[in-house]
Write a structure and sequence with these properties.
The chain is built from four helices and twelve strands; from the N terminus they run ααααββββββββββββ. The chain is α+β, with helices and mostly antiparallel strands. The protein has a domain of about 130 residues: Glucose Permease (Domain IIA) (Distorted Sandwich), CATH 2.70.70. Strands 1, 4, 5, 6, 7, 8, 9, 10, 11 and 12 form a ten-stranded antiparallel beta sheet that branches. The longest helix has about 150 residues.
Length: about 475
């Protein structure tokens, strides 16, 4: 996501910070004049500002990572929803396929039953055909016997037979008995023929019924075959659809793994950036401590120089008194020491931002504000909060044009974002004396004064001191 050049640049910057700090410490330890102090603190301030810019850049990248993670998390949620939907569809298809397979199995059982029934019917039909053939053979025998009798009757006509029977009869009663016997035989022949005809008719009916059952069973079997084939086609389509869904599910799960890995990589990158930010903030703390040390040393030096100056003034005054001069030289108003020892507001303006944590007006992140801000028109004069000695008049990208005044006893005040200066390094100022003018230099959103109170180099809430 981020180029290796930028990453290596950040690492190099971090690696060279402590070398710079060591060099600055050597310079600070070798420095004794106020001007060298001003240069050293300016370098430290610039380094702090450079570090803060790196932190801002890293925070921007960290925020970008967080936004990317949010986007990917949202995409991941959508993917998981799709996975759940696809898995549910596959589950539904599995149930439908199982039902189709059950239906196919049922159809197969019915087809088997119909096939077995057809086989039984076919066997019965064969049996019925054999019985019909046997009856037909018997029928042909009886027909042959009857045919022989009929032919014999035709050879000797019935009247002759009756006459023969009459002649052969011993009596009328015997004749009647003989005729009745002949009639009975003829009736028996007719009954035999009728029975054979009835048997053949029944066999033909049973054969026809079996054939109808066979046709109906074959029709049912064919319908079952068609239904089974339709079910198998439906099952094939469902299996194909299931395969497509399983392929899609695998792709979705692969995408889920990829998104999860991207989030893991972004989290690792986020942690690395947080570590870099922490390292740079530790370096800033070291720089801030070094600035405080330099301020304390500068204040101590200013105190010694002030004592030497006062001693020199006392000696000169003693010499002047000894010479009994009537007139003494009027001191420069800018070097007069006021009676007041308290602190005053450096400008009469509305306080727009107090001391402590706030949302930075430019970077937009939560940041500790080491002073208070006064809103005032561009070019308005700024007064010294108390008498003291100017120990720093310089510029950096954060404070812009700024002034630091030492007030003795470890007390110092800072005035930032000035448009221009009215004092110089080493100059004594009185309380209320103009030291510069309102501006918007450095890291600023508009004309205002950033005002700090520092005790032994550590910033304090100015509202605890000014009245």
């Amino acid at each position: 996501m981020y180029s290796e050049m930028v990453y290596n640049g950040l690492i190099c910057q971090e690696g060279t910070m402590k070398k710079r700090i060591s060099a600055f410490l050597i310079v600070a330890l070798m420095s004794s004049s106020v001007q060298v102090f001003a240069t050293g603190t300016d370098l430290y301030k610039n380094q702090l500002e450079e570090n803060n810019q790196i932190i801002d850049s890293l925070n921007d990248k960290k925020h970008e990572i967080e936004e990317n993670k949010n986007v990917i998390n949202s995409e991941l949620i959508d993917i998981i929803d799709e996975i759940n939907y696809t898995a549910s569809s596959i589950h539904t298809l599995n149930a439908t396929i199982s039902q189709k397979e059950s239906d196919i199995f049922t159809k197969s059982q019915k087809i088997t039953e119909m096939t077995e029934k057809i086989e039984v019917l076919e066997a019965n039909i064969v049996k019925q055909k054999q019985e019909i053939q046997s009856q037909e053979v018997e029928l042909r025998k009886q027909e042959d016997i009857l045919s022989a009798r009929v032919r014999a009757a035709y050879k000797s006509n019935s009247m002759n037979n009756i006459i023969v029977t009459l002649i052969q009869s011993k009596s009328i009663l015997d004749f009647a008995e003989r005729l009745r016997f002949i009639e009975t035989m003829a009736q028996k022949d007719r009954e035999v023929m009728a029975l054979i005809d009835s048997i053949i008719s029944e066999l033909e009916w049973r054969k026809a019924t079996l054939e109808e059952d066979q046709l109906e069973t074959e029709l049912i079997r064919d319908v079952l075959h068609d239904e089974k084939e339709a079910l198998e086609l439906e099952k094939g389509a469902l299996v194909s659809e299931k395969s497509s869904l399983e392929y899609e599910l695998n792709k979705q799960r692969q995408l889920e793994d990829e998104k999860t890995q991207v989030i893991a990589n972004l989290t690792a990158e986020e942690q690395r950036l947080a570590q870099e930010i922490g390292d740079i903030m530790e370096t800033n703390e070291e720089l801030e401590a070094e600035i405080q040390r330099i301020i304390r040393e500068a204040q101590e030096q200013a105190r010694r120089e002030e004592e030497a100056r006062r001693a020199e003034e006392a000696r000169r005054k003693a010499e002047e008194e000894a010479k009994q001069k009537e007139d003494s030289e009027e001191p420069n108003p800018s070097e007069q020491v006021p009676v007041s020892t308290g602190f005053i507001h450096p400008i009469q303006g509305r306080i727009s931002s107090g001391y402590g944590y706030r949302i930075h007006p430019i970077r937009g992140d939560r940041h500790f504000h080491s002073g208070i801000d006064y809103v005032a028109p561009y070019g308005a004069p700024i007064a010294s909060t108390r008498e003291g000695t100017v120990i720093l008049v310089t510029y950096n990208s954060g404070y812009g044009n700024y002034v630091i005044i030492d007030h003795g006893n470890g007390m110092a005040s800072l005035y930032a974002h000035l448009s221009s200066f009215a004092v110089g390094v080493g100059q004594r100022v009185t309380q209320g004396q103009t030291i510069g003018y309102i501006g918007s230099t450095g890291s600023s959103t508009g004309p205002h004064l950033h005002f700090e109170i520092r005790v032994n180099g550590v910033h304090r809430n100015p509202l605890d001191y000014v009245r």
